[in-house]
Structure formats: C-alpha cells, structure tokens
Write a structure and sequence with these properties.
Layout lengths: L6 H10 L5 E4 L5 H10 L3 E5 L14 H12 L7 E6 L2 E6 L8 E2 L2 E6 L2 E4 L2 H10 L15 H4 L2 H10 L8 H7 L3 E4 L4 E4 L1 H7 L12 E6 L7 E7 L3 H14 L3 E6 L2 E6 L3 H14 L9 E5 L3 E7 L19 H9 L9 H11 L6 E4 L3 E7 L3 H8 L9 H13 L4 H8 L3 H13 L3 E4 L6 E4 L1 H6 L4
Parallel strand pairs: 1-2, 10-14
Antiparallel strand pairs: 2-4, 3-4, 5-6, 6-7, 8-9, 10-11, 12-13, 14-15, 15-17, 16-17, 18-19
Helix pairs in contact: 9-10, 10-12, 15-16
C-alpha cells in the first residue's frame, strides 16, 4: 500500500486528476459504489474532501466519519479491505484489489474502467465472474445429463484403466469421489457436472455444440486452398489423440542415416505439438459456443487456436504462473498423464522446439482467442537431410567466426570473445559445437588452443 501522503504527492495527484486508480469525492454519498469498483479492478484510492475538478474542499475528519466509512466497506459483499489515512482535513481511502471478486454494494456491481465506476449489467456480471474463475464451466451441474441414457461406460472404463483406478464401486460413486458428481441425500439422486459430458458422454456435442476440434491442412502459407479437413467430436481425450494423428499424417518426416543407424527427424517435434493441442483443448473457454479449437497446418508452420484469451494472468507470466480455467478438465488430463498439473506446458513447448533446432513458438493473445504458432523445418532442409547432405544452421556469432578464420587463418577463444562481444563460456560452447560439426578443427592444447577450418569443410566449399 502507498506510503503516508505529503503535500508534494497530493499536489501531483490533484494535477493528474481522476483516473483508473484515483477518485475525488466531496462527501460519502455514493462511496460504496466507488469502493466496490476499485476492489473489482486493481485497487485504488479515494480522496474524500476534493471536488471532481480537483479543488480541495476539506471535510471534518471525525472518528465518527471514519467509522461510517469503515461500515460502508464492511457492508459490501464480500467485505472490502480498506485503509484510511488523514492529511490536511482530507481523508485518503486506500482500497485493496479484491481476492474474492466480484464485489457488490447495495446499488449493485461496479467496475472501475478508466476514470469512471461503471455499473455492470447481468451479462457483464456473469462474464466478469467467469473471467475471475468464480464460475467454471466444467464444475457446473448439467441438469440435462441423464446417466442411464447419456453415460458412456466404455469411455469411463478406459479412463479408469489408464489412470490406474480400481473400479470396486458403482460408477456414480466413483464419479462423486472424483468431484465430478454431487449426490442429493434427500432425493437419493446424483447430479453430474459438465466435465462428465466432456469426457464420459456418448455424444459430447449434445451438451456443448462447440466442444470439438477442427484440423485443416492448407496448401501454401495462407488459408486459400484446403487440401484436407477433419472435425473430431469424440470426448476430449479422443480429440487430443485424433488431432495429433492428423498432424503426424500431414507433416514431413526425414531420415538421417549414419552407418547402420537411422534417425527420424520430424518437421515439428512431436512433444511440442502434443503440448500445444492438449493446452488448447484443456484451457479453452467452454462457455464460448460460437467457436471451437482449430489446428491449421501450412507448408512450414502450424497454428493452434482456441476460444478464450488469457485466464487470470498476463502474457509475460505464461509458463511462470499456473492458472487453470477448467480445473476438473485439467485434473482429468493430469490423471491420464497427458499434462503436468504444475502448468509447465508453455516452457516444455519452448524446450522441445529449441532442442529440435527451431525457434520458439510465437504466442498471440486477444480478449477472445489464444493462438500459438510453431515454425517447423522447411521442406528443403528435410530433403537435404534425407539425401545425406549436410544442412547446418549457424548463429550469427559462428558465421562471423568462419569469416574471421578465412581471413586470419585461425581463431582463439579470446579472439572469439572479442569478435562477438561475448563471454568465455559462450565462446567455448560455440567453438566446441563447430568442432563437433567438423567446421573447425581444434589445434594445440590448454592456453595454446586455437581453431582452423577443417579440411572437410574447406573441401565442401562451405561459406557459412
């Protein structure tokens, strides 16, 4: 929370005027809506005793007034945490960002948007609660789900086997123990959550018409020419597996033969694409029924798009902070070994691409969609590998070193550092890799070590 107010700070605040974190009020009329609006946003401060134009009016800062303000905050639902500070007959009310959003007062629900506190409509309140994770699709009771008619025993039995759960109870009991169903004792009846419809119903789209995955193969680098398209609308596990198979069928694979060994080199690392598809299906917004998950395959890149922007985190926090829009869906995937609950999927995608010698995935986020793009090996690279040619990707430091050696005849670690303005350790790693690739040949030993172009590289006429 902010430090004690002083004259200079007050002057600066008054000059800046009202904004998304500052509100001026002459009295406590309407104070409740300002408090909940800040609590529903990112917090802020209310200066009591200041006009809307920033003119200091001052008030009688009695203990009774402070008690009234505290009562207003306490009567909000839930109770709002505030601090009250006094300066020069002005009360500064510091409002913390709420941890139990959304908050309401007797006037309704309000949200701070720019310099105004705006009242939320019914649909806005619902959308806000969903965005804050107070209402989760997969945890809602599905009153349309009829266990006798809709439950797919085969799919549930397969889940139990794969997750190593012993089925020694009736299926309804097991679902309740997994927090996928609730039993009403008075009625003696089970009610099943939406997650059951997504995983264990005979017809997933009966309960959510957009709960499916579309895979499309395009010719070229845009969407003008479709070569193949498939819609997969089995349960979520089947959608993951079918989408992965579609990508495997429609991307390239090269074979590198060294001696008696044959190594497969995929256009895209399987682990990265698998993580991308799992994350899209697991984290999509299932309240959004106007769109589904898409997997687009182009000549040399793949896009995976899912409805629903970031959930309760910022873009720079991706891979560092775990926030799951669909807790039950994520837990079922974890039980099947399809995902780690720690939320490390983004980092694993980056690592898989890096280990394959490819650049990291590109992530784009809007309010309604999350897109991740994977750039694979180009066709000519894979063709060169299959034909037994050497296709080596060098970084800019290594390219500069080759030119240096062509001119000077040799290079040392110290010269490499100076040439590229890099560290001794980076120079050591780069030069070591170039030796293993038979671009450089290491000469001398210890402090007298230097590198020259290898005879093989010179013979092949490579120029970096």
């Amino acid at each position: 929370m902010a430090s004690k107010m002083n004259g200079e700070e007050l002057k600066l605040i008054l000059e800046e005027g009202e904004n998304r974190t500052t509100e001026f009020k002459e009295n406590i009329e309407g104070l409740d809506k300002e408090i909940v609006a800040f609590s529903n946003a990112h917090g802020g401060r209310i200066l009591l005793g200041v006009s809307d134009s920033g003119e200091i009016k001052r008030i009688n800062t009695t203990n009774r007034l402070k008690s009234q303000i505290q009562d207003i905050a306490n009567n909000c639902q839930p109770r709002v945490n505030i601090l009250i500070e006094e300066f020069d007959r002005i009360l500064i009310i510091e409002v913390h960002e709420g941890e139990k959003k959304p908050y309401m007062c007797g006037r309704g629900f309000y949200l701070r948007i720019g310099p105004n506190s705006q009242k939320l409509s019914r649909d806005e309140i619902l959308r806000f609660a969903i965005q804050e994770g107070r209402v989760r699709y997969d945890e809602q009771i599905n009153t349309r789900f009829d266990f006798g008619e809709d439950f797919d025993e085969r799919r549930f039995s397969d889940f139990l086997k794969r997750s190593k759960i012993t089925a020694n109870l009736p299926y309804e009991n097991i679902l309740a123990n997994l927090d996928l169903a609730e039993k009403q004792e008075e009625e003696g009846k089970y009610y099943f959550k939406n997650a059951v419809g997504l995983f264990f119903s005979k017809n997933v789209r009966k309960f959510n018409r957009s709960a499916y995955t579309t895979c499309i193969l395009f010719k070229g680098r845009n969407r003008s020419h479709i070569i193949d398209r498939k819609d997969f609308d089995g349960n979520l596990v089947e959608q993951v597996e079918e989408a992965i198979r579609f990508v495997e069928r429609n991307t390239l694979l090269a074979y590198q033969i060294k001696g008696l060994e044959r190594k497969e080199i995929a256009q895209y690392p399987a682990n990265a694409i698998r993580e991308g598809i799992v994350n899209a299906i697991m984290h999509r917004d299932y309240f959004e029924t106007g769109s589904n998950v898409f997997v687009y395959i182009y000549d040399d890149f793949i896009e995976i798009i899912n409805p629903g922007g970031l959930f309760r985190i910022k873009k720079e926090e991706l891979g560092k902070i775990c926030a799951r829009r669909n807790e039950l869906v994520a837990e079922l995937f974890r039980m099947l070994g399809l995902v780690e609950k720690a939320g490390t999927g983004i980092q694993r995608m980056k690592d898989a691409m890096k280990n394959a010698g490819l650049k990291k995935p590109k992530i784009d986020v809007s309010e309604n969609f999350f897109t991740i793009r994977f750039y694979g090996h180009k066709k000519e690279e894979l063709a060169a590998i299959s034909e037994g040619k050497i296709f080596i990707k060098l970084n800019e430091r290594q390219k500069k070193a080759i030119e240096f050696v062509k001119e000077k005849g040799r290079i040392t670690n110290r010269e490499y550092q100076k040439l590229n303005n890099t560290t001794r350790e980076t120079a050591k790693l780069d030069l070591g890799k170039m030796s293993r690739l038979e671009i450089f040949e290491r000469m001398g030993s210890r402090r007298g070590t230097f590198y020259i172009l290898s005879s093989k590289w010179v013979k092949m006429g490579k120029n970096g």
